[in-house]
């Protein structure tokens, strides 16, 4: 079985990817700096597992990355490491530039130098897969979808930093020949999601009896992708993707934010009804919209389907039900996450 160096593997998507990879017999070297969103509790089931090596460190630390590459000789590097929350990027964009742009550059330089030192089959099979977002494309009107040829038009400091990292990955392929792959995904959801994001935030606040904040009119549209489907897509691209290509990953599940919130409320009403008998939708409170809030995202994932045979397995209805059930069954994990600096407060308010 292969060895993969996974960066950001204690975060939401990265953590799910690592757990799945180890379960499949892949040896994973997991590099994560453990910011507020990195959580070793997510990796508790592989603690001490011979197929999982955790290293706390920064992707921008070239000496560390170079040492890990030389020591473990991975067949691939899968880069999840990123500052990822739009609201946080509004409050503090510098951290996003440092990690997502400068950090990615340092990682690419270390990986390039390592790849150049390889020979024969090891060099031929090596891959660098960069995990990115559909937010780099900007916003859509009422119709249309993002494809791999959609021009970049990022509208937040977060999406601008991810766009820059995508361009660096492309440049390292065209300039140095580094065998790269890039995936741009839609909104992920599922287990182990840090509760600043919409779905886990709504679940936590609903259970606490607090107002459920919905930005603006709540009619912003996102394509929701269950994290297990995303992990399968990344494995598929890693195994069969054409070097230098970008693949969009979507869930075929466009929903307005208000629809998502109401779906969560309905599921909680069935599973954990309020003591006073009121529906949880009564907790919905519309608040001032996020500055520069993109109105609609939608992904055309037909390239990934037609070339590599991947399609999402989860409908939104199945995925959101499993997600709610996971959070209800893992409240100790949520409480430990919230023992840190984040307390479900509104961030990203200032323009």
Account of the 3D structure:
- Helix content is 42%, strand content 16%.
- It has 351 residues and is an alpha/beta fold.
- It has a domain at 3-190 and 225-251 and 293-314: Rossmann fold, CATH 3.40.50.720.
- β1, α1 and β2 form a beta-alpha-beta unit.
- α2 (62-72) packs parallel to α4 and α4 packs parallel to α6.
Features:
Rossmann fold, single chain, seven-stranded parallel β-sheet, three-stranded mixed β-sheet, 12 helices, alpha/beta, 12 strands, 351 residues
Give the SSE map.
Layout lengths: L2 E5 L4 H12 L3 E6 L19 E5 L5 H11 L3 E4 L6 H6 L1 H25 L2 H6 L1 E7 L23 H20 L3 E6 L1 E3 L8 H11 L3 E4 L5 E6 H14 L5 E4 L4 E3 H15 L12 E4 L14 H7 L7 H14 L1 H7 L14
Parallel strand pairs: 1-2, 1-4, 2-3, 4-5, 5-6, 6-10, 7-9, 8-12
Antiparallel strand pairs: 9-11
Strand content bin = 15-25%
The name of the CATH superfamily of the domain at 3-190 and 225-251 and 293-314 reads NAD(P)-binding Rossmann-like Domain
Q: Structural class from helices and strands? A: alpha/beta
CATH domain class of the domain at 3-190 and 225-251 and 293-314: Alpha Beta
Rg value:
20 Å
Provide the residue-averaged pLDDT. 93
Q: In which range does the helix fraction lie?
A: 40-55%
User: The CATH topology of the domain at 3-190 and 225-251 and 293-314, please?
Assistant: Rossmann fold
The span between the termini is: 49 Å
Order of helices and strands: EHEEHEHHHEHEEHEEHEEHEHHH
CATH architectural label of the domain at 3-190 and 225-251 and 293-314: 3-Layer(aba) Sandwich
Unreliable residue runs:
none
- Oligomeric state of shown chains: single chain
Largest sheet: 7 strands, parallel
The count of β-strands is 12
């Amino acid at each position: 079985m292969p060895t993969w160096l996974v960066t950001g593997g204690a975060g939401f998507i990265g953590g799910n990817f690592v757990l799945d990879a180890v379960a499949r017999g892949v040896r994973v070297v997991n590099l994560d700096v453990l910011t507020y969103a990195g959580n070793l509790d997510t990796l508790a089931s592989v603690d001490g597992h011979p197929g999982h090596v955790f290293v706390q460190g920064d992707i921008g630390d070239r000496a560390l990355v170079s040492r890990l590459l030389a020591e473990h000789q991975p067949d691939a590097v899968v880069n999840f490491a990123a500052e990822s929350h739009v609201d946080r990027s509004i409050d503090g964009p510098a951290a996003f530039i440092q990690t997502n742009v400068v950090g990615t550059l340092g990682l690419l330089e270390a990986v390039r130098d390592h790849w150049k030192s390889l020979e024969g089959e090891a060099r031929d099979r090596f891959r660098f897969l960069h995990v990115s977002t559909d937010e780099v494309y900007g916003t859509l009107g009422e119709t249309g979808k993002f494809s791999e040829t959609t021009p970049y038009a990022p509208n937040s400091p977060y999406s601008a930093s991810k766009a820059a990292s995508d361009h660096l990955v492309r440049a390292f392929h065209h300039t140095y020949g580094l065998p790269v792959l890039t995936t741009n995904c839609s909104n992920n959801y599922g287990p182990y999601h840090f509760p600043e994001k919409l779905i886990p935030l709504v679940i936590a606040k609903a259970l606490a009896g607090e107002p459920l904040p919905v930005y603006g009119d709540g009619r912003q549209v996102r394509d929701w992708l269950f994290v297990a489907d995303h992990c399968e897509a990344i494995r598929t691209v890693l195994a069969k993707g054409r070097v230098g290509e970008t693949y969009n990953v979507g869930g075929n599940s466009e929903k307005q934010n208000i629809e998502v919130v109401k779906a969560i409320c309905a599921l909680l009403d069935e599973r954990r009804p309020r003591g006073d008998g009121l529906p949880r939708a009564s907790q919905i409170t519309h608040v001032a919209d996020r500055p520069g809030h993109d109105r609609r995202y939608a992904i055309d994932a037909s390239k990934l389907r037609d070339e590599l045979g991947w399609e999402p397995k989860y409908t939104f209805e199945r995925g959101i039900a499993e997600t709610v059930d996971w959070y209800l069954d893992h409240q100790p994990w949520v409480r430990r996450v919230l023992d840190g600096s984040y307390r479900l407060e509104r961030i990203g308010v200032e323009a």
